[in-house]
Amino acid sequence: MNSNNWVFLLAMLFILVSCNEGNKNKLNDMANEQTSETKLPYFNSALFTPEWEKGEHKIPEFSFRNQNGEQVTNKTFEGKIYVADFFFTICPGICPKLTKNMGMLQDEYQGDSDIMLLSHSVMPWHDSVDKLNVYAEQNGVNLPQWHLVTGDTHAIYDIARNGYFADEDFTKTQEASDFIHTENFILVDKQGYIRGVYNGTLALEVKRLIRHIEILKKEL
Question: What's the domain count of the chain?
Fold first, then answer.
């Protein structure tokens, strides 16, 4: 065999090895993508660092009143996947968008008793049960799937900051009495763990949230 033939064979061998390695890399990438799309991380701090093992943080005990004056507690959401947010009825800014996008979730999961929605008023001194009831009628909020809740200001602000990690500015101000205004939707699983955070003003983020809800529905 002459030298030209040896060069040709070596070149072909190099190409075959390179293609094989490339295919392996593609398969590894696909496997990683599949893993990230079939399991959601856990979030155990306000840093929202994704963790793949269960942590200790769960939504703490709470008790509020909804738009019908009914008591709403952790047991209301026991064994359910739910999305939580924070709003107030006279908000002229982001709240209408949050309510509209929560409405998208309500429409998507209408009749699905495993999916619930929870909106906390961050102006409870204004948003009485009666005010929430009117707001619910104006915005097509339907029980038993979607609860608008009011209650003690300290209790709502405490669970927003220490339960849902919902107040981004709190890490800067550290003032417990400062007004909470957040655009976050927080995804909570059937065991009370936080599994996702999303910009509730963006329709694209709501679609991502829906994909993640579908992933959680498949968890045992």
Answer: 2
Question: What is the model's pTM?
Answer: 0.81
Can you tell me whether residue 85 is helix, strand or coil? strand
Q: What are phi and psi of 87, to 5 degrees?
A: -155, 180
Instruction: Give the CATH number, domain containing residue 197.
Output: 3.40.30.10
Q: Which residues pair with 87 in a beta bridge?
A: 121
Of 22-26, 90-94, 170-174, the range with the lowest mean pLDDT is 22-26
pLDDT in the model for residue 175: 56
Is the pLDDT at 29 greater than 90, yes or no?
A: no
Q: What is the domain extent for residue 179? A: 63-217
d(CA 104, CA 94): 16
Please give the angle made by the CA atoms of 156, 159 and 162, to the nearest 5 degrees.
Answer: 145
Task: Say what angle helices 95-108 and 203-217 make with each other, to 10 degrees.
Answer: 40
Q: Name the amino acid, one letter, at 20.
A: N
